[in-house]
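A favour, since you know our C-alpha cells better than I do. Just paste the record in under my message, thanks.
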Amino acid sequence: MISEKSREKFSNIILSCLPKSSKQLLFENNIKLPQIILSKTPTFNYVSLYKFLEAKIINNITNVVFKDYSKKRNLLEQEIYKLFVSQCKGIKELEWQTSQPLPSFPGALTCFSRLYSLQVDLSHVNSNNLYEMAHICKDLGELNICGFSQDIRGLTFLINEQRNLKSITLDAKKELCQELCKVLARKGHTISNLSLVGSFGFISHSFLTSLVNLKKLKVCYCFVKYEEIEEFQKYLANSIFPELQSLEIYYNLLCLKEFAKLIEKTEGNISNISALSFLNFNTSAEHTGIFLKAISNHCPKIKNLNTHIGPEDLKYVKSLLMNCRNLISLNLDSLRENNNNIGDELLDILTKFSPRCLTNIMISGDWKYSIDYFENYFESYRERKSLQFMINCLNGNKITPIHIEVVRKYYEEGIIISSNLIIE
C-alpha cells in the first residue's frame, strides 16, 4: 500500500518534469503547482520509463494540485497527458479513461505505435479519438471495452484495423450493436480470448460461430428477456470451440445444457471451468448433472472446477473424480435444496475417489456431516500433499464444535494447512 506521502512525492517529481510552456500555461490560468516543484528540474527523465499508462496515475497527480473538484482539472490533466505522450516511446499498455484526445497530442505516433493492450471507457472516449488511434496502432493483442450502449463507428473501425487481435472484453448495455457483431465475426480467426460482461441484449451473438480458435470464454450476463436467452442459446449450440481451455460462467446458469454441448465438442484441453451463480437456482438444477457429465467425459486435463451440484448429481461427482485425475482445486456449491443426507455421501465419494493432486476443496451447502465421515476424509490425506479445506453451511448449526475440533486436530498434525474453520 503506497502511503499518501510517497504518492505526493512521486506526483511532485512528475509535475517537475512538465516543460516550461506547460507550467506557464497553468500559471496563466491561475493553477498553482506545489512550490517544491518550481525550485529544480529532475536530472533524470522518469516519465520516459513508462510502458504502462494508467488513468489512476494521472488522477493521483491532479489530486495533489486539486484536493477538491475544479473545472481547471481538465487543463492540468491535458498537460500531464501531453507530457507522457511526448516523452514515452513504445507504450505497451494504455488505460484510456479520459476525454483527452491522446492520439492528437505531439509524439502520439511514437508513443502508441507499439501498443499491445488497450482499455477504453467509452463514457469518456469519443468516436473521433478512436478513429485517430486506429490509424496509429494496428497490432493490438488485447482490447477491453466498457461504457458503451450503442454502435460506435470509431470502435468498429479500430477493431477492424487490428491485424492480430487475440483478446477482447466487452462490457456493455442497452441498444443492440449490429456493426460490432459483424466486425467481431471478421476477426474470428484471430480471437482466442473472449469476455462478455454486462446486460445481455447489447449484441447479436451470431459472431460466436466464427471464433474457431477460441481458447478462453467468459460469460457474465444478466438475462432480461426470454427471447434474448433463446438467441444466445441458439448460437452457443451452433458454435464449436475445439481448442477451448478455460470456461467461466457467472450470474446465470440458464444455458448450462448448451455449455455442456460446447464442452463435448472440444478436443479435451480444458483446464479451468467455473460455473457459479447466485440466481436462478431452481431453473438450472435440471442441467447441472448434464454439465458435470460433459466435464467428466471430455475434460481429462481439467485442474480447477467451480460448479453447483444437486442431490441427484453425486454419481457425476464420482465419475468426475475417477476420470479427471489432474484435478487440483474443486468447489462444489449446493443448489440450496434441502437434503440432509448428501453430506456424508459426498465426503465418502471424495475419500474414496479423489485424485492425489486434489488438495484444495471447498464445499458449500445445507448438509449434515457425521464426525466419522469427517475423520475418514482427512485420514485419506495422510499420504498426500497437505489439504486446503473450506466448508460453508447455510445453516451454521450443521458444523458443530466437534467438527471444528476434528479439523484443528488434523491442522495441528499438518494434514490440513488451511481451513476457514480454524481461527489462529
